[in-house]
Write a structure and sequence with these properties.
Elements lengths: L4 H31 L7 H23 L4 H5 L2 H26 L3 H22 L6 H21 L4 H19 L4 H26 L9 H8 L1 H16 L4 H7 L2 H13 L6 H25 L1
Length: 299
């Protein structure tokens, strides 16, 4: 079968979209390995550096690409308020992720990102008036049963998993409602957080209360890279989702929590009890049903 130029272009776009999306979720899945380097550092101190260096890296990217769309958003009150809200939400998610990983909750972090797409479905129903199919309702009920089972049998409410999934689903909802150019939107979000982070950085520096001050120059360099580790997967994800169907993204996104789960069990030797297995099995069943619902919706 001979493809014309248009078909070849579409096929190349599809394959490049697959590669971009795969890379984004592989990076996100591997991030616990990176944050574990700073296990002795307070999560809030890491967050401050992450915000500062993300903003600096974004500004360098904007200057290199000569993409100054974010300046127009700064002059629009509605854009500024909506991006301030999404910036605060993603800032909370960043803090929770760092805290969870460095307090030996990688497995629970994985559970959170398995639950995340199903929380997004629920938000879509509540806030965007999207209708759920019977399969999607079944998937949501399985998630509820999973969380309830884990709470009752493990004796501990999985607040880290739910906080991570709810905060990231909220960020996704805001992105769905307020549609801005990727680089411009992310720049404003970090710009909103930057002054707050910088003030805390100055205070902790003069009070010598930061757990980062005593770190070696090598670790300071690794912290500088946190800006790249934050922005690059977001940019890859944005480029990928423009080129491939949402249903394909839905399948690929489970790479990240799967990698986190494997890291938590086999690298950091976190406990994975029978209770965890049953709870995760219910989540996996829910995700299979969710994926089936996407397939039938697209077909």
């Amino acid at each position: 079968m001979v493809l014309n130029n248009s078909s070849k272009k579409q096929l190349n776009e599809f394959y490049s979209g697959i590669i971009y999306t795969l890379l984004s979720f592989v990076i996100w899945g591997a991030l616990p390995l990176y944050w574990k380097l700073f296990e002795s550092v307070k999560a809030f101190d890491i967050l401050i550096y992450r915000i500062i260096w993300s903003f600096i890296f974004l500004m360098i990217t904007i200057i290199v690409l000569k993409n100054y769309i974010f300046l127009r958003l700064l002059l629009n009150l509605k854009s500024l308020l909506s991006l301030s809200l999404s910036g605060m939400v993603i800032g909370i998610n960043w803090f929770l992720f760092i805290f969870a990983v460095n307090s030996d909750h990688v497995v629970e972090t994985s559970l959170g990102y398995y639950i995340n797409p199903l929380i997004s479905i629920f938000f879509g129903m509540i806030f965007l008036h999207e209708k759920l199919t019977r399969i999607q309702w079944t998937a949501l009920i399985l998630v509820f049963i999973s969380v309830l089972y884990l709470t009752l049998n493990y004796g501990k409410f999985p607040w880290i998993a739910l906080s991570l999934s709810i905060s990231f689903a909220t960020y996704g909802l805001l992105k769905k409602i307020f549609k801005y150019e990727t680089l411009a939107g992310l720049t404003i979000e970090t710009l909103i957080l930057f002054p707050i982070a910088f003030v805390f950085f100055i205070i902790s520096y003069f009070k010598k209360s930061s757990s980062i001050i005593s770190l070696s120059p090598d670790f300071h360099f690794y912290l500088i890279l946190s800006g790249i580790a934050t922005v690059v997967p977001l940019a890859l994800f944005a480029m990928g989702t423009k080129r491939i169907p949402l249903s394909t993204v839905g399948f690929i996104q489970y790479i990240a929590p799967t990698l986190m789960l494997l890291e938590g069990i086999f690298i950091y030797h976190e406990s994975f009890l029978k209770t965890h297995f049953i709870s995760f099995s219910l989540i996996w069943c829910a995700l299979i049903l969710y994926s089936i619902s996407l397939f039938y919706k697209k077909s």
